[in-house]
Amino acid sequence: MTTWRALSEGWRTAGDLVFPPVCVHCARLVEGGNLRHLCPQCATLVTFVKPPCCRVCGHPFYGEVHGERCCPHCAELEPAFREGRTCVLLKGPGRSLVHALKYHRALHVLEDMAVLIRATPGVVDYVRGAVLVPVPLHPRKEREREYNQSRLLAQLFAAAGGPGTRVAEPLRRIVDTPTQTALDRRTRRANLKNAFALRKDADINAAERYVLIDDVFTTGSTLNACAMVLRRAGGVNLDVVTFGHG
Fold first, then answer.
1. What is the value of pTM for the model shown?
2. Which of 62, 138, 149, 227 could join 80 in a cystine, given CB atoms 3.0 to 4.6 angstroms apart?
3. Which residues contact 6 (CB under 8 A, 6 or more apart)?
4. For the CA atoms of the chain, what is the radius of gyration?
5. d(CA 125, CA 116)
6. Residue 137 carries which DSSP code?
7. Residue 130: which residues within 8 A CB-CB, separation 6 or more?
8. pLDDT tier at 159 (50, 70, 90 boundaries)?
9. Among candidates 106, 101, 116, 206, which has minimal Cα distance to 156?
């Protein structure tokens, strides 16, 4: 294994000499730092989320927090899940990483996202030992994109969580909804009604803890629609985590 890792690092170093990595945010060459696709300057602009934060969506609170730890953003959500966490705010370099993965097939940024997941305070402990459930894409959209970014992120979270943390896919998307990007909460909720269903071979165990995984928490409508399906099937110990929030 040590030899393989040494060879892998050697090939990567040689490749970087021929094709130097470029920052996905500012397009400068990446020189130094612990990330390969964000330059050291842009890496410092990534906003990690740490407690105190909203118990529903994970958005950070600033200053002193008293009373109910639910932000105004989530006041009307009525979550079917228990708690939510997120790794980074979806702005600046954090947004660039998500957009590169989601819209530009930049699978290479996953290695940087893995580093950021592990660096987010409390997230590794949050997913450890859980069954991680990626939000499914409709088959047409997955064929078009050639992968489901939520599944890839779930695999990163599972690797960070270590032994006992695994990925399962009990959900399927049965309605090919239009893009949700520019829609408000009410319209998103209407679009997603009955959009997800349980797979025929799904086995939901009430004793297991399930954590839904998605790339971004925006209004929470997609995650909540998935949570409702799992809850109806007996998944009562249910949380969510996303890479970004915004």
1. 0.88
2. 227
3. none
4. 18
5. 14
6. P
7. 161, 165, 208, 209, 210, 211, 239
8. very high
9. 116
